[in-house]
Amino acid sequence: MKQLFKFCAAAMLIGAAGIVAAADGAPVTNTAKSEFVTARQTHFSRKGQAYYIVGANFWYGGYLGAPSGVGERKRLLKELDTMKAIGINNLRVLAVSEKTDMKSAVSPATTAKPGEYDENLLVGLDFLMAEAAKRDMTVVLYLNNFWQWSGGMTQYLNWFEGTPALDPNVTKDYDDYMKKNARFYVNAAAQKEYRQVIAKIVKRVNTITGKPYSEDPHLMSWQLANEPRPGNGKATKEEKAAYVKWIDDVAGYIHSLDRNHMVSTGSEGLAGSAQDAQLFLDAHRSKHVDYLTYHLWPKNWEWFDSRNPQGTWDNAITRSRDYLNSHIELAKKLDKPIVLEEFGLDRDGPSFSIKATTRIRDRFYKEVFDVVYTRAAKGDPIAGFNFWAWGGAGRAANADYWWKPGNDFMGDPPQEEQGLYSVFDTDTSSLELIKEYGDKLKSIKR
Asked: Which residues does UniProt assign to the signal peptide (predicted)?
């Protein structure tokens, strides 16, 4: 515990720096606490008012912000302006990637090897945060990935176990991939490095604004990882316990570095919890986890077949509504907000082409938005949504729709066909739906 300064002169110096005394490297700024997004029981608050998330997944935002190499700052500004125009107030963004030999992973990466960082990409993240702030957008930054498309946990295990980084796009064995990745939570060397990476980002001072990330009110939440899971669908009791402990420990560690911001898990919900509701509750019960998250993927979970939309639509929508509503009920049990931070559906056909229509996706979005808005208007703990994902002005460059280094970044990461779930800036009907329901959600008073 740091001691409080005893002399007025010292206190004046601290005040001039915009910081008051705090504990364990977790400064509190002179920025009014109300400027930060906070969880007040089952709802978010910002600037003294209810704050509902009308968000987009924009995983590559920091990449576009890089001053050289893969950076496209002109495009980034255009994307932010377009999203702002349709009412987007929140972005969910990848903060860190790990260099890997896997071909279905993004390149370059933030971390070339343990302790070695690409400053160009970190400055890109700085630029994104600065520009988001100009538009009064808030940002969720996730610090790892259960999936291979950014290196993630499988790359950590490659570094510290010496085992090959498994690419399920190649092996086609997702069960084995998930089983192996669960070892990340109990690998001491991997956890030490992961915490060093967390500290590197959380303690970073933005090179554009001069403001520490820990003092930036436009950062909404630190997120442990994208879609962390306890293992595969047959996760053992020991694996589940290790997963829950990892969440509590790491969330607590982040709060020890930064007392201003919320921490979230990035969980998919029951689909990412071995269909175990108690596990999902236990993972979010921690006092260090400020709100719940969940994702909805009817095609990925084989509820919907885009080659047979008429024959599978009713099943997909019934199960989607049940999934949406059941998680809101789970959030009630913990008296915390919950965010639907991923959902998507492919284009008509199915097709990856930007020329393909989006009638079925628009119907799906409307069903999702209806549930979110109706439950929020009743005062239930659903706090908003982030659709997956913003493709914006990006365009697929290859006939097979697979990403290669040098191609535009799009909403679909490199492990998926480019155009699979992206919402483009020309998808007028989808953009109108997002704005319509976003405006309705933000009009709710608390």
From this structure: 1-22
